[in-house]
TrEMBL record:
Name this protein carries in UniProt: 3-dehydroquinate synthase N-terminal domain-containing protein
Pfam family, one: DHQ_synthase
UniProt superkingdom: Eukaryota
Domain 3-dehydroquinate synthase N-terminal, first and last residues per copy: 90-201
An example Gene Ontology molecular-function term: 3-dehydroquinate synthase activity
SUPFAM superfamilies: Dehydroquinate synthase-like (SSF56796)
Keyword Nuclease among UniProt keywords: no
Keywords: Membrane, Metal-binding, NAD, Transmembrane, Transmembrane helix
Regions that span the bilayer: 121-142
Keyword presence, Signal: no
């Protein structure tokens, strides 16, 4: 199994968030999700991520996953006996269209409809806007529910996961409702970048370049060195 490199982000005295990054690390990502030991996984993804990577977490779903001593295509009725969480999926539109009061309210209703408890885990799977709204959703559900970020765009991988900000856009204003909330961890599989269109890659690189220039020193040197690699 490919190793994921651990990364810790320290947000002053607010939180320290563990993260893990690797390439083609689907199996390890799934193990990280199961380590939380949730009774249910609420998988929230945007339409683009679902279209490109909808099968990424399929091994967690009934009839697909293979647990020790079991065979594939097991019956859903036997799923709970394996000690594995049930998975519920909700798809939001891509981009800022997902960051609305209506979508936030719909997420809350869905969570209660599918029987979410305080032991459930929310997984945000998609781009930066998706992580923003799902982070806010997690911060207010039961006054704080565990959430793991799984960014699928380059910009989200280095911009959103390095911030505790969550938000939606309300009444024509941008990011005017939100909170500061820490995920229990973030998981980055860099292989998702191979499916990004060029404009998404340049957007992510542009933000990296801006931050490298602002911080200077080793940050700028590291950015230049990374771009110089073949």
């Amino acid at each position: 199994m490919p190793a994921m490199e651990p990364i810790s982000l320290v947000f002053g005295d607010r939180a320290t968030v563990p993260g893990f990054i690797g390439l083609d690390v689907q199996d390890e990502v799934i193990q990280h999700l199961l380590e939380v030991k949730p009774d249910k996984i609420l998988l929230v993804c945007d339409k683009h991520a679902d279209a490109l990577h909808g099968d990424y977490l399929k091994p967690l779903q009934p009839g697909v996953a293979v647990a020790p001593g079991e065979t594939a295509n097991q019956e859903e009725s036997n799923w709970g006996t394996l000690g594995l969480p049930s998975v519920e999926k909700y798809i939001l539109p891509p981009g800022d269209a997902s960051k609305s009061w209506d979508h936030l309210s719909a997420l809350m209703r869905w969570a209660f409809d599918v029987g979410t408890s305080k032991k459930s885990l929310i997984v945000a799977f998609g781009g930066g806007a998706l992580l923003n709204v799902v982070g806010l959703f997690a911060s207010i559900l039961y006054r704080g529910t565990k959430v793991i970020y799984m960014p699928t765009t380059l910009l989200a991988m280095h911009d959103v996961v390095t911030s505790l900000k969550t938000s939606i856009c309300y009444d024509g204003q941008k990011n005017n409702i939100g909170s500061f909330y820490a995920p229990v961890k973030f998981l980055i599989d860099a292989s998702f970048c191979s499916t990004l269109p060029s404009n998404e890659l340049f957007s992510g690189l542009g933000e990296l370049a801006k931050n490298a220039a602002l911080f200077g020193g080793k940050h700028l040197e590291g950015f230049v060195a990374a771009l110089s690699k073949e």
